[in-house]
Design brief:
Blueprint lengths: L1 H13 L15 H4 L4 E8 L2 E10 L7 H4 L1 H8 L5 E9 L7 H17 L4 E7 L3 H8 L2 E8 L7 E9 H4 L7
Parallel strand pairs: 3-4
Antiparallel strand pairs: 1-2, 2-3, 4-6, 5-6
Pfam families: FeeM
Keywords: Transferase
Protein name: N-acetyltransferase
């Protein structure tokens, strides 16, 4: 996990999304990291982790979206669908322009989701990345909120949703 935390730090600092830390690590939701319902996905090139994403399946500990979008997450949860959230999407700055890395990460993420019979996945992305993920993974934007915490200062997050029936049959499945 140290490599994932360092990669996340470097990617987010490099994108201007968060200030650098002395530890050189960015640990978003440590309470979710060691849960059996969380799967950490990595993309490697020559044994080096160059991309990561995490997916947490809903359970007693909740989802990362409960922290920033609690009412919206609960409303979706009330639909009764098998729900998860995907978070900590990061790509090494030197690989940022290589679409194959992010595609590999999401292909792996949705393979894990399929293995767990996922029906709906929630994401939070920075507003500046909203259109990219609408195109890349057929994500639908639900709402936006700006907030500040120990990692971010006045960054607008977009709650996005991907329903498995909207994902199936896309180019991702090939």
């Amino acid at each position: 996990m140290d490599s994932v935390y360092r990669l996340t730090h470097d990617a987010f600092v490099g994108a201007g999304l968060t200030p650098a830390t002395k530890s050189g690590q960015l640990i978003h939701f440590p309470e979710l990291d060691n849960m059996p319902k969380t799967k950490v996905i990595v993309a490697e090139v020559n044994g080096r982790i160059v991309g990561t994403n995490s997916i947490t399946f809903d359970g007693p500990a909740g989802l990362h979206t409960d922290k920033f979008f609690p009412e919206e997450t609960q409303s979706i949860r009330d639909e009764g669908r098998n729900l998860a959230s995907s978070w900590r999407v990061a790509v090494d700055p030197s690989f940022r322009n290589q679409l194959k890395v992010i595609r590999s990460i999401f292909k792996q993420t949705f393979a894990v989701a399929d293995a767990y019979n996922l029906e709906c996945c929630l994401f939070t992305f920075y507003e500046k990345h909203e259109k990219i993920y609408q195109k890349l993974i057929n994500a639908r934007s639900l709402c936006k909120k700006s907030y500040s915490n120990e990692f971010y200062t006045d960054k607008t997050q977009v709650l996005m949703r991907v329903d498995i029936e909207d994902f199936l049959g896309t180019a991702w499945q090939t």
